Amino acid sequence: MKQIYLDNASTTPVRAEVIETMLPYFTEEFGNPSSIYPLGQTASDAVAEARASLAALINASPKEIYFTSGGSEADNWAIKGFARANRSKGNHLITSAIEHYAVLHTCQALEKEGFEVTYLPVNSDGLVDPEEFRAAIRPDTILASIMFANNEIGTIEPIGELAAIAHEAGVAFHTDAVQAFGHEPIDVAELGINMMSVSGHKLNGPKGVGMLYIRKGIKVANLIDGGQQERGRRATTENVPGIVGLARAAELAYAESDDVRERQIAIRDHAIDRILAEIPHARLNGSATARLSNNINISFEFIEGEGMLLQLAAKGICVSSGSACTSGSLDPSHVLLAIGLPHEIAHGSLRMTLGRDTTLEEVDYAIDCLKQTLSNLRMMSPLYEDYKNGNVASLIDQEKAAKASA
User: Fold this and answer.
1) What is the CA radius of gyration of the chain?
2) pTM of the full predicted structure?
3) Active site residue 325
4) For 257-292, what is each residue's pLDDT tens digit?
5) Which is it for strands 210-214 and 195-199: parallel, antiparallel or unpaired?
6) Which residues does 350 contact at the CB level (< 8 Å), separation at least 6?
7) What secondary structure letter does DSSP report for 117?
8) Given 107, 318, 325, 369, which residue is catalytic?
9) If 0-12 CB within 10 Å is exposed, 13-18 middle and 19+ buried, where does residue 354 land?
10) In what side-by-side order are the strands of the sheet with 349-353?
11) How far apart are CA 69 and CA 215, in angstroms?
12) What are the CA-CA distances from residue 71 to residues 23, 103, 224, 321 (Å)?
């Protein structure tokens, strides 16, 4: 059966060049970087080179790069570590309602420790309003954490503007850049980012490795104690193959990012135009302009998302209804609810995310299958039958009419 993978926001295949770079550190160069003999020093040098390479990509110092097991650990470390280390200055944090659960659940955990958290709303495109952000800052606010780009709807937040507002009030600024790193240019100095989380497996690198950028002078308590690795900030033997793989994947991603982004935008916009033109009762979720180049998120009325995913999977098409971290939940996406979708529409949502090698032909085939799948599901839907009989209205059609007359 033909397989088309359109879930690259969930994870990506590791590139052959990345595997080639990693292989020696599983075998002949397997040393512990903390060891003083040559085998260990070779591994230590590889980690240092990876650190310098990653720092250069974001305009940071190598001493500001710390390796983690992935994006979730980096988010936990940044937010918990900063909050606990700076509690004497205040106990109030700000984040948004559409953050990844690695941020939201971390903030909820801190609330149990006595911290207060403001969860900012977003507009219908998923954007944080800078003036609402400014108004939420209090004298006891110490940290704001706003994601660079949303993992479900692809909206890119105004990070530079938000960070500037935070700094005006003496508030540190963290961003979860897991979806953006390797895809969007990120200069942490220019944007005013104090801490930033990254994961390897979102950019054709290995799973189980990530990094946290911590600007010099930012005080962050350790999340993992037990040794002097990562300059005494994160104990445990370094994942040398993963670290060199992350660096190589990032180098390749940024070297090709302009070409990949241009190609993906053309395919993305073609797909969105086709779906909205050829499938009735459909709406685009997220910003049409401030959007990741590979993200397509559409809601369909009168269907249930799980049935749609299962039928598409049976045709070899790999897509999702949102974040992979919540795919086992029967609840609609918190992101889609936050942008104002009612439950019945949020439940019928589809996320397609393109990879660096995704072709127009693959996307067209997926859309052809999607059209047939939705037609089949709607024929079995009592809600759609009620709509055809005039007993219920289409909420999506009403929304489109309201926008057209505004």
Assistant:
1) 22
2) 0.95
3) yes
4) 999 999 999 999 999 999 999 999 999 999 999 999
5) antiparallel
6) 297, 298, 299, 300, 305, 308, 309, 319, 320, 321, 370
7) E
8) 325
9) buried
10) 282-284, 295-300, 349-353
11) 19
12) 23, 10, 15, 21
